[in-house]
Amino acid sequence: MKQKKTDIALAIFVGAVVFLALEAVVFYGLVNWLVPTDPAVEEEGGMIVRNWGKVMYFILIYIAVVVSAMLLASSQVPRHYRRHVLFWFYLSLPTLLVMLLVAFS
């Protein structure tokens, strides 16, 4: 019984570390690639359409990376740990909103 609790605690810890690492890499990668804007375009006032496109690309790429990571992780972990993978996947969806606010504010 004690071994099972230790295994679950370790699985949650490893999941949290991998989740945070993935989120940080994806966030900084997307922010460095999508968010910088051309100063000439900012002066012309073409920011709304330009940012809308960037937000859509950000969302699509983020969802693609997260779904790919979930599929890869769920195929690699034992069956009784798959619920933990789904937990981190569901947690990544509200994290997307936070990332969007931080990246585009």
Architecture overview:
- With 105 residues, this protein is mostly helical.
- The N and C termini lie far apart (48 Å).
- The chain is built from four helices and no strands.
- Helix 1 (2-34) runs antiparallel to helix 3 (47-76), helix 1 (2-34) packs parallel to helix 4 and helix 3 (47-76) runs antiparallel to helix 4.
- 88% of the residues lie in helices and 0% in strands.
- The protein is elongated.
Q: Report how far apart the termini are.
A: 48 Å
Task: Summarize the biggest pleated sheet.
Answer: none
List low-pLDDT spans: none
> Outline, from the CA principal axes?
elongated
Helix content range of the residues, please? over 70%
Topology at a glance:
Blueprint: H1 2-34, H2 39-44, H3 47-76, H4 82-104
Helix pairs in contact: 1-3, 1-4, 3-4
Keywords:
single chain; 105 residues; mainly alpha; 4 helices
In short:
By secondary structure, the chain is mostly helical. It contains 4 helices and no strands.
